Recover the amino acids of this structure.
């Protein structure tokens, strides 16, 4: 495991921390890490990335330890990958290739598996498709490219292109089905609140805490890939849909994350985006910047610029003075909510903040509704916030807070009243 560091580059992130993250990526799919180091480069070589002396030195160590896979925590060109494989006589994969392996291991739904295969085939078109067989042999093989039986098919670029075409056609069908599900939700229009954040920030644990669900929540990078939606009731009684999403990571091509459209569509259509941060992580600020960069590339730059609501998670790992400091920040800025998904600390505050943010867009309307019109009254109590009400013998006189969309929906559904 190597993390190349060019001396003139400044990423705002410690190379040792990046190396530790890369080791975590390898361990996430049960690879045994024999050795790991940061390699300082004066410049990047077009042929091998690393200098000749370092390539030769590592060749000896790889041979001595019978290493099967060398992982470079950086992007490699096809030429660099092939040259290093020849020099070291072992399989070489870069950061994107490693993450693709993890995605293949984690995807559970049919769409997730198809999206992984599409991303992998697109990535591998100019590379040796058989490169994945080394990983299959070491770990038993999850086979997201179909396993050794398809190695000859995947080795033929023409057949790869045909497979890509078939996958895209299948995904169009899945997307249509998902679109129908989304339309059904819009007919029962709960606002969507999406959790985003760096991988392993604790999104799934927080999701489970807020919704009572049992989504897989492990201390692993990319434990969540497939989308999960659950309803949750806010303190006002209003119901929202909470969406758990794939975690982001530094230097991950946006196109790779964007492959998981089912997850990201919930983010793009969300009323509110909550950024879950591992506030106890030594590089929490750098991770925040990485998440902001990915969100901006996905078209959510305005939301980032306006200031996302942050759930500052894992406060249970902080000392008392640091927790108190974060609590004081929350008193001044309700966009920064200290929470512990593990213990539940601060989760009620987070729900109240979500409630308040949704209420900002509400308009207050005065309505007079016939007392015998139970359907209209029930609708207003379900979708609005009844602020005042007094009844006479025939009518209920109400002041109700409604989102603009709900106000328009009420006017269409109950034409005899004006909202």
């Amino acid at each position: 495991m190597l993390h190349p560091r060019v001396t003139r580059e400044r990423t705002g992130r410690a190379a040792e921390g990046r190396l530790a993250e890369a080791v975590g990526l390898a361990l996430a799919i049960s690879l045994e890490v024999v050795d790991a180091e940061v390699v300082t480069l004066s410049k990047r070589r077009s042929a091998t990335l690393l200098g000749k002396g370092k390539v030769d030195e590592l060749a000896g160590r790889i041979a001595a330890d019978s290493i099967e896979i060398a992982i470079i925590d950086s992007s490699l060109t096809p030429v660099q990958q092939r040259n290093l494989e020849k020099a070291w006589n072992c399989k070489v994969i870069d950061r994107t290739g490693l993450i693709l392996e993890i995605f293949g291991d984690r995807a559970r739904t049919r769409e997730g598996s198809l999206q992984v295969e599409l991303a992998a085939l697109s990535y591998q078109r100019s590379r040796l498709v058989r490169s994945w067989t080394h990983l299959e042999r070491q770990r038993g093989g999850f086979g997201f490219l179909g396993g050794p039986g398809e190695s000859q098919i995947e080795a033929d670029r023409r057949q790869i292109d045909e497979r890509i075409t078939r996958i895209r056609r299948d995904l169009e069908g899945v997307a249509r089905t998902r679109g129908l599900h989304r339309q059904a939700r819009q007919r029962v229009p709960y606002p969507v609140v999406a959790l985003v954040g760096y991988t392993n920030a604790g999104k799934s644990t927080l999701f489970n805490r807020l919704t009572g669900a049992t989504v897989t929540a492990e201390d692993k990078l990319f434990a969540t890939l497939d989308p999960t939606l659950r309803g949750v009731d806010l303190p006002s009684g209003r119901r929202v849909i909470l969406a758990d999403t794939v975690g982001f990571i530094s230097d991950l091509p946006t196109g790779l994350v964007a492959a998981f459209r089912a997850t990201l569509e919930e983010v793009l259509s969300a009323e509110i985006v909550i950024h879950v941060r591992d506030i106890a992580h030594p590089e929490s600020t750098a991770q925040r910047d990485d998440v902001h960069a990915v969100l901006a590339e996905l078209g959510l730059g305005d939301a980032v610029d306006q200031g996302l609501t942050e759930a500052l998670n894992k406060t249970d790992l902080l000392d008392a003075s640091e927790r108190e400091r974060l609590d004081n920040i929350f008193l001044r800025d309700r966009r920064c909510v200290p929470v512990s998904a593990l213990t539940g600390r601060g989760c009620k505050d987070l729900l109240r903040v979500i409630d308040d943010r949704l209420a900002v867009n509400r308009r207050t309307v005065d309505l007079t509704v016939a007392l015998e019109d139970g359907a209209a009254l029930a609708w207003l109590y379900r979708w609005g916030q009844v602020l005042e009400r007094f009844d006479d013998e025939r009518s209920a006189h109400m002041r109700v807070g409604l989102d603009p969309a709900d106000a328009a929906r009420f006017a269409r559904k109950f034409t005899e009243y004006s909202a």
Notes: The longest helix spans residues 157-187. The chain has four domains: 2-98, 107-171, 190-359, 362-413. The chain is about 45% helix and 20% strand. The two ends are 63 Å apart (CA to CA).
